Amino acid sequence: MGRAFEFRKGRKMKRWSAMAKAFTRIGKDIVMAVKEGGPNPEANSRLRAVIQNSKAVNMPKENVERAIKKATDKDTANYKEQLFEGYAPHGIAILIETATDNNNRTVANIRSYFNKCNGTLGTQGSVEFMFDHTCNFRIPNNNQDVEELELEFIDFGAEEIFADEDGILIYAPFGSFGTIQKELESRGIEILSSGFERIPQITKKLTEAEMADVEKLIEKIEEDDDVMNVYHTMEEA
């Protein structure tokens, strides 16, 4: 298996395990999708993807409809996606994806977490190059031949396809999202969920005590409502 498989195995979708946090994230994704492409899912591929993800975390349909309606209100603030980069203790690179309606608040909060946990908030581009920006799709496993599927989707940008207990995962570079989404839909293949991740090119092994130092910072960052995802170069236990 490749790096995407090992990355997925290590993370185990930790941030999606908290249902309330997942709903908050979906709500922000809906607002950004509607502001960008309108409230009609058929004409807005990004919104279609978010609605699929809402089903994957069992978000009630009425919650989704309410979020779409709210997003069409001109008074509803839009969220700006902002990337933060820095170092945790012991030389571990940290990459943070946020969606905020108040950038000053988010910057101040993220800086305070690094300061309190002996980390260093970096400048733009300081660690982003250490991660591959990827997209992924989860589809049902109906006993397809995974190797054959991989050969078919290489032409559309897929780099790694593998099965797990929840279906089949397709990984590709960030820029291939629209092409693969369109091909899956044209083939009538159900998309259970989709998204983007940043996979570290190299990871660093730490002692248990060192891991605890890094995890303290990660936990503080992840508790922030503006934070969508946190990626790092620490080797998962």
From TrEMBL:
It comes from the Bacteria. It is found in: Cytoplasm. This is Probable transcriptional regulatory protein DFR66_10218. It comes from Flavobacterium glaciei. GO terms for biological process: regulation of DNA-templated transcription. One of its GO terms (cellular component) is cytosol. Belongs to the TACO1 family. One of its GO terms (molecular function) is DNA binding. Its main location: cytoplasm. It holds the Pfam family Transcrip_reg. Keywords: Cytoplasm, DNA-binding, Transcription, Transcription regulation. Residues 79-234 form the TACO1/YebC-like second and third domain.
